[in-house]
Specification:
Layout (H helix, E strand, L loop, with lengths): L1 E6 L11 E8 L9 E7 L4 E6 L8 H8 L4 E4 L2 H12 L6 E3 H8 L8 H9 L19 H12 L1 H14 L3 H22 L8
Parallel strand pairs: 1-4, 2-5, 5-6
Antiparallel strand pairs: 2-3, 3-4
Helix pairs in contact: 2-7, 3-6, 3-7
Length: 203
């Protein structure tokens, strides 16, 4: 694994292919209160790029261009939060998208465990260390443990998608999953605009 840390944006000319795994780290999990601190990206080739934000400058033109590119699929695990928090700070609604958590919930109805750690262990025999999850991501300097943790959150998403897509096709649920992925940016926007706890489809 090769991890490169960038400050404020991705470098000019960097290509991450037509499917890029993305995750975020924030000060907390409350939209509108907790700021975006870090965005992790990987093309699935073992390399990871981390973009660290200082809380003041979110101009990031190269990252925004990638998020808005209709030819690049942005792949998340629990994309609902990541898409919303990036929209709130970067002003870009990522699309098209894929979410391994949604894929797992639709394909793997025999279990209620759909966390990234569960998927990596069950589908890839990889044991993720999640100890750094609740550390302070707003510090000026990240520890090596934080960097390794952040990288691991995007390192395996491409492989997980391959396994999950096979299960979705096998069960005839791939079309349903695709429809959910297409709606996900709108679901994230509803969260960001105040409908997070409300089921708009309820009577």
């Amino acid at each position: 694994m090769n991890v490169t840390l960038h400050h404020g944006d991705l470098p000019d000319g960097l290509s991450l292919g037509d499917t890029v795994a993305i995750d975020t780290e924030t000060l907390g999990l409350k939209l509108g209160r907790d700021r975006l601190c870090l965005v992790q990206l990987s093309a699935g080739d073992g390399d990871v790029h981390l973009v660290k934000f200082d809380g003041k400058d979110y101009s990031a033109p190269n990252l925004k261009k990638l998020l808005a590119d209709p030819k690049v699929t942005k792949m998340f695990h629990y994309g609902r939060f990541d898409i919303a928090v990036m929209w709130g700070h970067l002003g870009v609604l990522a699309a098209p998208v894929y979410c391994t958590k949604i894929a797992s919930k639709i394909a793997r109805t025999f279990t209620s465990y759909h966390g990234l750690k569960n998927l990596c262990r069950d589908l890839l025999s990889v044991d993720l260390d999640k100890q750094q999850q609740t550390t302070d991501w707003g510090t000026d300097t990240l520890t090596q443990q934080q960097i390794d943790y952040a990288a691991s959150d995007v390192l395996y998403l491409h492989r997980l998608r391959e396994v999950l897509d096979e299960a979705l096709v096998r069960e005839g649920r791939d079309g349903l999953a695709k429809a959910c992925f297409e709606f996900l940016p709108a679901r994230a926007l509803l969260d960001a605009r105040g409908w997070g706890d409300e089921d708009i489809f309820a009577h």
